Predict the structure of Redox-sensing transcriptional repressor Rex.
Amino acid sequence: MKPIKISEAVVRRLPIYLRFLNELSLSNIQTVSSQELGEKLDLNPAQIRKDLAYFGEFGRKGVGYNVDYLIEKIRQILKLDKTMNVALVGTGNLGRALCNYNMYIKDNMKIVAVFDADTSKKGTLINRLTVQPMQELSDSVKRLDISVGIITVPAAEAQNVADQFVAAGIRGILNFAPVVLKATPGVRIHNADFTAELLSLAYYMDNINGSKEGDETQ
Ligand SMILES: NC(=O)c1ccc[n+]([C@@H]2O[C@H](COP(=O)([O-])OP(=O)(O)OC[C@H]3O[C@@H](n4cnc5c(N)ncnc54)[C@H](O)[C@@H]3O)[C@@H](O)[C@H]2O)c1
C-alpha cells in the first residue's frame, strides 16, 4: 500500500477514533456516523469527516461509516497490523507502573524487555519481565527486534539513555523525563511531559472558554 502523508494532528486523533471504534465493534455495532463519533469524542463532526476522508470516500450519507473497515484502515495507517516490541529503561515508580499497565498488549505495542542501571534490581520481576543490566540493552534490542524505547529515568540521565537506545538501533523514543532530548536524524522522539501538561492545564482553566484539545484544525 502506498504510504499516505497525514498531518501530525490527524495522526494524534487516529488512536482516539480507534479506541472508540473498537468499543463499538465489541458491542457488534456495524456502522457509525460522524455525528455520533463527534458527540462521543467531543470533536467536530466536520473535522472527523475531513480526517477520515484521507482513507477515501467510503462513508455513506445517512448510513455512516463501516466500523470494522474503519478499524482496519486506521490500524494499517498506524502500522498496528504487526506487533511492535518495546524496551523500557528505568524501573522506578513510573517505569514499574507502565510495565504493569497492559495497554501495550492490546494495542500491539508490547514491552518485551526492561533495564535498569541499579545492579540491586538485576533479575527482579515486574509483570513477568526480568530487569536486565544496561550492558545487555544492545544485544536484547537486536535479538528481540525492539524498535521503540521508553525512558523513565531521572532527567539528568535521560540523554545518556537516549544515546544508548539510538546506538542500539532504536528508531522511536517515548521520553517521560522532564528534559528536551537532542534530535537525531532518523529517530522520532515523543515527550510525555506530565508537569508541562499540568502547567498548561492551569493556563486553560483560567481561559476555560478558549480553545480545547480537539479544536485543532489541520
Ligand atoms: N512524564 C510523567 O508523567 C512523569 C511522571 C512522573 C515522573 N516522571 C519522570 O520519569 C522519570 C522517572 O521517575 P520515577 O519517579 O519513576 O523515578 P525513580 O527514581 O523511582 O526511578 C528511576 C529509575 O531509573 C534508574 N536509572 C537511573 N539512571 C539510570 C541510567 N543511566 N540507566 C538506567 N537506569 C537508570 C534508577 O535506578 C531507578 O530505578 C523522572 O525523570 C521523572 O521526572 C515523569
User: Anything to note?
Assistant: Residues 142 and 168 are 8 Å apart (CA to CA).
